[in-house]
Amino acid sequence: MTTTQHRLPMILDEVRAVRVERLSPSFVRVELGGACLADFGVDGPTYDQRIKLVFPYAGGSLPSVADADQAWLSTWLERPVEERGHMRTYTIREVRGSGADTRLVVDFVVHGHDGQAGPGSSWAEQAEVGDPVVLLAPRRGEPFGGIEFAPGTASQLLLVGDETAVPAICAILGQLPWQARGAAFLEVPTAADVLSVVHPEGVEVVWLPRDGGPVGSRVHDAVLTHLGAPVLPVDEPVEVDPDLWETPTYSSSGEEVDAPVTLVGHDLEGLYAWIAGESAMVTTLRRALVRDLGVDRRQVAFMGYWRRGVAMRS
Ligand SMILES: Cc1cc2nc3c(=O)[nH]c(=O)nc-3n(C[C@H](O)[C@H](O)[C@H](O)COP(=O)(O)OP(=O)(O)OC[C@H]3O[C@@H](n4cnc5c(N)ncnc54)[C@H](O)[C@@H]3O)c2cc1C
After folding, report:
1. Which fold has domain 156-306?
2. Interval between CA 165 and ligand 1 midpoint (Å)
3. Which of 24, 111, 164 to mutate to test the pocket of ligand 1 (most atoms within 8 A of CB)?
């Protein structure tokens, strides 16, 4: 038997938009295809599998990946931005096709109507069939990481997100076992951004259009009410870590990961909460769940997907 030797344990290659669909005012769906995707694969459901995409610098071309090896990744950041382009993180909403016809579906939020659009949003807004982008994604049979959804034996799920987490929540909902129970709260910019989603009957799906309100304004009260907690007015947290990432196995703030169980006063045993979106929104919900309600940090994943006013580092 012959085995193919790859330079890298992940897919790092150019792919192209093979289908572009405007789903709603805030979402553009792009199917990415390319021969390299024949090697795509993860062990089990993709859930919230994240990938990286590199977009060209305005008017420029993509960095070459023809001979990419480990050094490509370590030296990419050192190159001038005109050459390296911009790397951003997205979620695999769905995998379609198989073999060389495998396509990854990515739902992009288009934002920046206030003049703050970043390269990811701008690329999606203008995407046409044939447009290239560099993809970093899992290669079948190789460890890659990037799936945070890990409910273990939880009996109740709580999925919460703003529009950037809608692709991940919808992907998770579509891959849950039919007997799963819980609720999903999805805050989106407008009522026209409510999408149809496949989900188990026992998981309630609540869409929360904020219609001009600040990000996180609808989701906070809805989640606390759902948990039976008092809904008090909240101020924007003073300190927001734009890279907030608190999961049962990693803490961006350096907290002890295996802290003892501190469940007090609320019947939240069996709960697993997955919360992602704008970092201040996630920080506020984290404070409410972990500090005020005493939910064990091992039952939660809090992830800052973006920070208002801060471009993703790349
Ligand atoms: C694990 C993970 C998975 C993600 N999955 C997805 C996904 O599937 N789809 C998706 O669209 N995004 C997703 N995101 C979020 C996305 O990476 C960020 O929104 C990113 O900043 C977009 O890059 P950009 O080039 O458009 O903007 P940037 O250049 O990063 O930012 C430019 C400006 O736009 C603002 N900004 C960034 N995002 C938004 C937004 N959504 N709304 C309003 N203002 C914004 C920034 O605050 C900044 O002021 C994910 C993030 C992570 C960490």
Report:
1. Rossmann fold (3.40.50)
2. 10
3. 164
Record the tokens describing residue 43, joined without a space.
């062990």
Top mean-pLDDT range of 113-122, 257-266, 276-285, 305-314: 276-285
DSSP, collapsed to helix, strand or coil, labels residue 26 as: coil
- Which of ligand 1's atoms lies nearest the C-alpha of 124? 26
Cα of 121 from ligand 1 centre, angstroms: 7
Name the pairing type of β-strands 86-91 and 156-161: unpaired
- What pairing do the DSSP bridges indicate for beta strands 132-138 and 50-55? antiparallel
pLDDT higher at 6 or 167? 167
Ligand 1 pocket, residues with Cβ under 6 angstroms? 50, 88-91, 107-109, 111-112, 116, 118-121, 163-164, 167, 305-312
CA distances from 285 to 203, 260, 264 (A): 20, 20, 17
What's residue 204's pLDDT?
A: 98
Give CA–CA dist 49/27, Å, rounded.
Answer: 19
Element containing residue 105 per DSSP (H, E)? strand 103-109
**What residues does each domain of the chain span?**
10-138, 156-306
Q: Do domains 10-138 and 156-306 have the same CATH topology?
A: no
Domain 10-138, CATH number (from 3.40.50.280, 3.40.1370.10, 3.40.640.10, 2.40.30.10):
2.40.30.10
Q: Which atom of ligand 1 is nearest to the CA of 89?
A: 17
Which atom of ligand 1 is least distant from the CA of 86? Answer: 25
Confidence category of residue 3, pLDDT binned at 50, 70, 90: very low
